[in-house]
Input
Amino acid sequence: MEQDNSKRRKLTDLKGLGFAPVCFPWDEEAAFSRVLEALGWSGIAEYSLWSDTTGKAESAETYQMLVVDIVNGEPRIVPAALKAVEETLEGTDEVIRERVESDLALLRERFRRIADVEEEAEKLEVSDEPDESEAAEDESQSSVEVDNEIDAAARLNKAGLFVDRLSDRGRLLNAWDRDALVQFIAGLSERPGITDRDGSVISPLEYFTRFLEGIPALVPLSELATPRAPRDSSPESLGSRIAKSIKI
Output
């Protein structure tokens, strides 16, 4: 009878075989059936730590201490099987124990190293995940930043209206930098901290706006200057001025 192709595939030796999850249950009898079904007797022989060389090649009695099961369609070393073999060795003769213990020690060392690597990887994944408290803090901070931006825009708008009102009343000269003045006023604190003449404590913003409102209307000097009348340079006017100077 033709052998199943799945049982003729190349086997990976135990040194290169991966491990099943730590929580994977171990049932040696069930594992034996699955490995035999998937890989044939060659798989049983390859993945058993002890075999009786005097026994039949295709006999369950010939192979002992199987440590592999079929996990998701692939052969994998089961950690619980290593523990079972360790317990089994306690009741075997010294010859078997010496031959099996070296292979078992290598497998346990491989498993320990892989477990350490996976543990470190899990720690890194956990550290990369944002903490709920940090996420809440970031959200709160973002909300505060948005509120601050809205407040800053409102303060600039309010300061701009105030400056324009003073300018319309003639209390500010056109030569003054409007935008700079608006930004300066918008940046003043509203927290009380200055004692006014009447003893009241007011904010820097209130103090400065009161100061500007108290400035009298300003008239540019160009508007106050009276243009000088042009001098009459006609001969008659010149003669008159000369006569006055010599008092004729």
In short: Strands lie at 48-51, 63-66, 68-71, 74-77, 194-195, 201-202.
